[in-house]
Structures are given as structure tokens and as C-alpha cells.
Amino acid sequence: MSPSPAKPIHLAYLFDPLCGWCYGAAPNLARLRARSDVEMELVPTGLFTGSGARSMTRDFADYAWDNDRRIFRLTGQVFSAAYHDQVLGSIGRPFDSGPAILALMAVRRTEPQREFEALSTLQKARYEDGRDTTSLDGVRSILAAQGFKAAAAALDHQPGHIAELAQSAISRGRALMAGVGAQGVPTLLILEDANATRIDTSTLISDLPRLLAIPD
């Protein structure tokens, strides 16, 4: 009798679409997701929504750019001149991840298997192409142009359902963060039954082989 296959490791990735460190973690996150013994779910925390949202100011733009250059040195992830000029340079524009979370929930409702792809699409649009991901018009345009036409339509035709999904997902993310005492994102958790265990997420940036103590 052949042995039963090992139970996959279930991970929850807590993130915010406007978090530069989450973008920096993307390459190692993709490598981790490619493992056959790992299942991962995206859990937005709404870090930059509600009271966490703000308007872009010159001081905040300078602070973000300093962090972005550090992330680039550690990960090689691109923070382009277009991003610097068109995103950080748009003083007064809302810094609010709510629209991007709604876009991801629209993808979850229409093509859930493409949710990680959609997050990558939004991150690249912002950090590489300098596109606006803080307005519904901006994220809808990005989704439609990148082949997420059903999700783009859902933002228009099912706004109530999408908003409910977003609120539920954010509530789950915040509850998970509180449960493990996490203060920010990215945060990576192992979920097993009713228990959540936080992983040293610095490994997502710098040391993938040590992540989960599972050798490549």
C-alpha cells in the first residue's frame, strides 16, 4: 500500500498593494508558491485604507523613495523613474490602497486562480510603469489592459459584492495580524487547523532557502 501524500503547508500572505516591501518580496514569494508542498492565500490587511490612508506629500514621497532604494539594493526589484516622477511626484494624490484591494477582490470573484497574477500586475504597473493604482479608474484601466476584463467589469457592475469581499478579507487579515502580534506587512503565516504561526518574513527578502526551514 503506497503512503498517503504529505499534507500541503497552508500559508497566509498578509500584504498591502501599496507596500514597497511586499513588492520587494515578490520574487521569493513566487519561488515559494511554485513549491508543490505549499498552498498560499492572499490576505490584504488594508494597511493603507481608512485611517491608514493619506495624501501624498513631499516629505512622505522622500521617505518612500529612501525605502524604495533600500529595497532595490536588497532585492533588485525595479523602482523606475516613471514611478518616482508620476507616482511619488503626484503631490496631493491619495495614498490609499482601497481601490487596489477592490481590484484584487474583483479578480477573486471572477478568476480566483489569477489573484496572485493580478497583484503582480498592479505592483508592476505602479513601480515599473508609474501608473496610478490608488483610484478605481486607474485600477480598472490596468485590469482591462492586462486581460482581467471580467474583473474590470465587476468593479462597475457588482460594486456591493466586491466591497463586501474586500471588507471581509481585510477583517480576516487584521484578525490574523492581531492573533500573532504582527505590526506590519509583509507577514507570512503557517495556518494549521485553528492555529497561526508567524514565519520570519525577512527570509522573503534575503534568505529563501531558510524560509520554513525547507531546503530547496
From TrEMBL:
SUPFAM superfamilies: Thioredoxin-like. It comes from the Bacteria. Residues 15-192 form the DSBA-like thioredoxin domain. GO terms for molecular function: oxidoreductase activity. Pfam families: DSBA. This is DSBA-like thioredoxin domain-containing protein. It comes from Paramagnetospirillum caucaseum. The lineage of its organism: Bacteria, Pseudomonadati, Pseudomonadota, Alphaproteobacteria, Rhodospirillales.
